[in-house]
């Protein structure tokens, strides 16, 4: 269930295009389960995920000097926050294909901010929030900690190319096991506007994806990547 939070920023335009690049195995898991995987925040490759910048950490250490459990809470909290990452871009990104798909059998899901909000409505167990990631200098800039989500909506400036918007949930109060992450219920027809096939994939692969989507009775348009258009001389 998507919940609006006035403290979390998002593009004003619900038609803002977002993308998710993923391998075939993760795509198949999404289609067959009709669920979206959300990764546990401390399992991301970036070890700074869900941590604080240096100015913020200095302030937290002062508070924790008289209350050690205060710092322990933030350390353990990372294990109870789950995230699904999306990339804001009007067009496909060559860099995203390179980073997030390991071979020629990757796919890109195209959606919009509005579609993300609507697709989350079937999920009633967990509250989801959607917010922009802010890219800052962790040595100089301050991250507020008056909201438990805020450490997870900041990343280092070296990740600016990701242009990330996140679906984010805190499951601290639910008795839900979280190993590497958890799956949430979504309306796939609402979530996915188009599926783009990897630019280096062969025709048989596109036919396979089309057949799979059809057999699962999903009404989703499938395109070959725009990066694989014909060369005109």
Report how far apart the termini are: 50 Å
Helix content, binned percent: 25-40%
Could you give a short account of the major beta sheet? 9 strands, mixed
Share of β-strand residues: 15-25%
Low-pLDDT segments, ≥5 res: none
Tally of individual helices = 7
Structural class: alpha+beta
How many discrete structural domains? 1
What is the string of SSEs from the N terminus onward?
Answer: EHEHHEHEHEEEEEHEHE
CA-based shape? globular
Instruction: List how many beta strands DSSP finds.
Output: 11
Q: Using only CA atoms, what is the Rg?
A: 19 Å
What does this structure look like?
This is DUF2971 domain-containing protein. By secondary structure, the chain is of the alpha+beta class. It has one domain. The chain has helices spanning 24-33, 54-66, 68-77, 94-100, 113-119, 188-191, 203-215, and strands at residues 17-22, 35-40, 81-88, 107-112, 129-132, 134-136, 154-156, 164-170, 181-185, 194-197, 221-224. The strands form 2 sheets. Strands 1, 2, 3, 4, 5, 8, 9, 10 and 11 form a 9-stranded mixed β-sheet that branches. Strands 6-7 form a two-stranded parallel ribbon. Helix 7 links the parallel strand 10 and strand 11 (221-224). Helix 2 crosses helix 3 (68-77). The longest helix has 13 residues, at 54-66. It is globular. The chain starts with 16 loop residues before the first strand and ends in a 9-residue tail after the last strand. The model has no long low-confidence stretch (mean pLDDT 89).
């Amino acid at each position: 269930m998507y919940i609006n939070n006035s403290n979390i920023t998002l593009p004003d335009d619900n038609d803002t295009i977002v993308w998710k690049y993923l391998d075939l195995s993760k795509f198949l898991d999404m289609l067959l389960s009709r669920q979206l995987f959300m990764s546990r925040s401390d399992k991301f490759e970036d070890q700074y995920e869900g941590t604080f910048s240096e100015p913020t950490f200095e302030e937290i250490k002062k508070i924790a000097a008289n209350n050690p459990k205060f710092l322990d809470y933030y350390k353990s909290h990372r294990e109870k926050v789950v995230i699904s990452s999306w990339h804001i871009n009007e067009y496909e990104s060559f860099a995203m294909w390179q980073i997030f798909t390991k071979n020629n059998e990757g796919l890109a899901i195209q959606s919009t901010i509005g579609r993300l909000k609507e697709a989350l409505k079937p999920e009633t167990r967990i509250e989801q929030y959607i917010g922009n990631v802010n890219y800052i200098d962790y040595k100089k800039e301050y991250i507020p900690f008056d909201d438990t989500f805020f450490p997870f909506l900041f990343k280092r400036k070296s990740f600016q190319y990701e242009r990330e918007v996140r679906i984010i949930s805190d499951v601290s109060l639910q008795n839900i096991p979280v190993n590497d992450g958890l799956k949430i219920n979504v309306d796939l027809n609402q979530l996915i506007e188009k599926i783009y096939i990897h630019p280096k994939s062969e025709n048989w692969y596109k036919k396979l994806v089309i057949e799979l989507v059809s057999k699962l009775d999903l009404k989703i348009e499938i395109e070959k990547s725009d990066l694989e258009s014909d060369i005109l001389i």
